[in-house]
Amino acid sequence: MSEIENRNPDPLTKNVVFMSAIDDVINATRANSVWPLTFGLACCAIEMMATGAAKYDLDRFGSGPFRGTPRQSDLMIVAGTVTHKMAPRVKRLYDQMPEPKYVIAMGGCVIRGGPYVKHGYHVVKGVDLLIPVDVYIPGCPPRPEALLEGIFKVQKLMKREKILDRTRRTTKPEVYQPV
Amino acid sequence: MARLEIGQIIAVIKEKLPGAVVEEVLDGVDPFVVVKTEQWGETALLCRDDSRLGFDLLSCISGVDYPEREEGPEIEVIYHLDSMVNHHGLTIKVKLPRGDPRVASVEEIWRTADWHERETYDLVGVVFEGHHNLVRILCAEDWVGHPLRKDYEPPDSFHGIKNVIY
Q1: Domains of chain B by range and CATH?
Q2: Which B positions 121-150 lie with beta carbon below 8 A of chain A?
Q3: Cystine design at A81: which of A1, A54, A109, B111 (Cβ 3.0–4.6 Å)?
């Protein structure tokens, strides 16, 4: 059994061993590199872009890389009005994301139809009719600070993840299935 | 060519196509003429090709539903024409029966009309005869009904998604 060479020159910490639960380590890495899906549907996407740009700088929290494919993302920010025509695509993109995956419903339209709630024949009255939602951010559109706060909430949720519990986040069967 | 006033534009149309203009409303912000439905195709061609008119741009096509007209339920299709050469414009309306609204397509005359006519078909249900691809453009392909008709009722659900009305 070979010994690992200890190159730490600091005498105070030379022989300190760091111990932690594997969940905490994995969750810390996961929560500090949230990769959102590039998924703008309407005007909320402008605020989402502003959040990613220099002034609000989402990169500070590890969430900068907006991915162009659902297969590399673990957060879907549904930013904008979800129409009935778009609904099957939203559902398909969500299904293509690897577990564990999180959803932010950004803005009034995504939460309950927003201004289209009464006469919007073409608008899905809340994206939670299609996919499970973790964090709701009200606003029309929400300011970038609000989106940052929502991402912090998602990071808190990620830190509660258990690697042995893989059943928690599957889509409920009663939620919409596309034809 | 020179810019023409609205009266002169109508005079040119009447000179070339007598009987095409059935109504003129010249007061108001947007003066318009109503053209006979059967003659709309040749009127459109005249509007584009006559050098005095020179309407080389179709700005917009709108459809309006009037279910409670005195003359009977009607659907109006409104064409906004502009001339980049002569710097004048014209608004033309075509009145169609609401039960079977059919009008000649002007897609071959102005390419803009392609998507505008599809939109008018999608939302108001006007059939543009001669259009090469008259399918819905905004609503989903299998949507039922024409949403901007006054008597339109939204469906209770679409593909299993409940359309909750609060």
Answers
A1: 6-149 (3.30.460.80)
A2: 138-140, 143, 147
A3: A109
